[in-house]
Amino acid sequence: MDNRNIPGSAPHPMKTLVPTYALYGEHGQGLVPESLHCESIPQRSSLYGWEIKLHRHDLFVQILYIRSGEVRIQFDDRRLEARGPCALFVPALHAHGFRFSEDIDGAVITIVTQQMEKLLAPHADLLAHFQAPALAVFESDEHGRRSFSLAVELLLAEYADTQHWRLPLLESMLATVLALLARKIATQASQAPGRRTPRAAAHLHRFRTLLNRHFREQRDIAHYAGRLGITATQLNRICREELGLSALGVINGRLLAEARRDLAYSSLSVKEIALTLGFSDPGYFSRFFAKHAGMSPSGFRILVRNQLDRQRA
């Protein structure tokens, strides 16, 4: 099998036909304790004949760490194959499915999207690498494999423990895992033919920084390109090459992330959230959210609140 980078893509239109699970294979399970869940891939996948059928998550991202064994992957309408040692990143709202070999060994780490964004908020350039599906291959990178493997194993061990200060340790270890994974994804991108020049990386970093400061102002692509001293066409090309998204897709993704956070964790009305995000028409905000999230803002809020209530019960 050949390990290959996964081309990034926006959620495929078929997503509305794909079941939405709390964790893969489970309908209606509440949010996981501490915004984090870790489990064995073979223990879970063996219950389903080593196959996790196509599904998606509205609230979670996942990291699959494959120590050994093989996996066939479907992301939206793309298919590829990989073997360990490797790691997969699965963003929220992307349809995905897996077929594992029976000798598979590894773990899946499920993280509430809001928690990941909170951990990485000070590092916009790092967070940028988690906007699209990604595959990190360690086959010829012994140093990267050892570092990432150690970080994951420490996280898994702490997750299974009950000693004092477990939560701050889990948060610190999770941040380390995410940073090492982003480093590997970025390194692979820089080594791909015709990809990621230092100038493009600098433009992307500045774009994400500006976007985090001004996304509520609903600035267009031309505004950001002008601030960067490049054309809108160049900015689009950089975003597609580095993130697998158009510049507009990056802007919309930032708005959507903030809208999801406000709906889930604030008491603001849908109209108030729309206004804080720069939408003068709440109806337009509702249509924007439904188009990109697959459900209405009020429907999303009800889903999250029901899951939170089940967690507390």
Automatic annotation (TrEMBL):
<keyword id="KW-0805">Transcription regulation</keyword>
<protein>
    <submittedName>
        <fullName>Arabinose operon regulatory protein</fullName>
    </submittedName>
</protein>
<dbReference type="Pfam" id="PF12833">
    <property type="entry name" value="HTH_18"/>
</dbReference>
<dbReference type="GO" id="GO:0043565">
    <property type="term" value="F:sequence-specific DNA binding"/>
</dbReference>
<dbReference type="InterPro" id="IPR020449">
    <property type="entry name" value="Tscrpt_reg_AraC-type_HTH"/>
</dbReference>
<keyword id="KW-0804">Transcription</keyword>
<dbReference type="InterPro" id="IPR014710">
    <property type="entry name" value="RmlC-like_jellyroll"/>
</dbReference>
<dbReference type="InterPro" id="IPR009057">
    <property type="entry name" value="Homeodomain-like_sf"/>
</dbReference>
<feature type="domain" description="HTH araC/xylS-type">
    <location>
        <begin position="205"/>
        <end position="303"/>
    </location>
</feature>
<dbReference type="InterPro" id="IPR003313">
    <property type="entry name" value="AraC-bd"/>
</dbReference>
<dbReference type="GO" id="GO:0003700">
    <property type="term" value="F:DNA-binding transcription factor activity"/>
</dbReference>
<dbReference type="InterPro" id="IPR047264">
    <property type="entry name" value="Cupin_HpaA-like_N"/>
</dbReference>
<keyword id="KW-0010">Activator</keyword>
<dbReference type="InterPro" id="IPR018060">
    <property type="entry name" value="HTH_AraC"/>
</dbReference>
<keyword id="KW-0238">DNA-binding</keyword>
<dbReference type="Pfam" id="PF02311">
    <property type="entry name" value="AraC_binding"/>
</dbReference>
<dbReference type="InterPro" id="IPR011051">
    <property type="entry name" value="RmlC_Cupin_sf"/>
</dbReference>
